[in-house]
Amino acid sequence: MGLTATKTRPAAPRREVPKSRGGRPTKSAAIERDQRLIEVATRLFLDRGFDATSLDAVAEAARVSKPTVYSRYGDKRGLFAAVLRREIARWLAPLSAAAETQISSASDISVEQRLVAIGREMLTFTCGPDAVAFSRMMTSQAINFPDVAKLGKEEGWLKAVATTARFFDHLMAQSALDVDDTTIAAEVFLDVVVGHNHRLATFGTPPEMKVAEKRMRAAIKLFLAGALGPADRVQGAAKSTQRRRPSR
Questions:
Q1: What is the spatial distance between Cα 85 and Cα 38, in angstroms, rounded to a whole number?
Q2: Which residues on neighbouring strands pair with residue 49, listed in sequence order?
Q3: DSSP three-state, residue 25
Q4: What average pLDDT does the segment 122-135 reach?
Q5: Over the Cα atoms of the chain, what is R_g?
């Protein structure tokens, strides 16, 4: 299945690979070579899609020998798995950073505000062109290569759930959240906050960010309706009473 991405990356510059006295690349040179290979492969997969990208094309664009690529990754599936693993790590970084920021944030910031901050970060990277392109490629290759789908689930979805669950554990310890299972709560949160918008983008209808954020805020309110801890529930009830109280 071919796929043309809306965003391309600059070609990797050509560099000479330093050799050790035995003729093999030094350790640092080998690491640099592998990074260049992954960068080039990422660009080609995004520009051409999985089916139209060959290991030979990657080797030529990365200025390395074909045997080097084949010996390092085995086949195109192995190369795609390496690219996907690196991309997933990039996508998860903003979520992890946002969660850590909210854990260390001032205690007077409401749970809703914290979740909105995390949700906004998630919308930005899950609906981006690269994330959408790789999601489409994973979907198209999942039947033929189940291990690629497994990698996406284990390295992507499950790690995102685990990161969110740890944040929820922190809120539970503060009595700011009241759920039976933080892992299940994290799965529900991720699905209702970004699942719909990510699916739209994957199907070729990227949502407007203002509309997406409005939906995200509404989803968080619904999520919190059954998950707020005792302290926040009392505070929320008080605010609701004030809103309903008629003015004199």
A1: 10
A2: 2
A3: strand
A4: 82
A5: 23
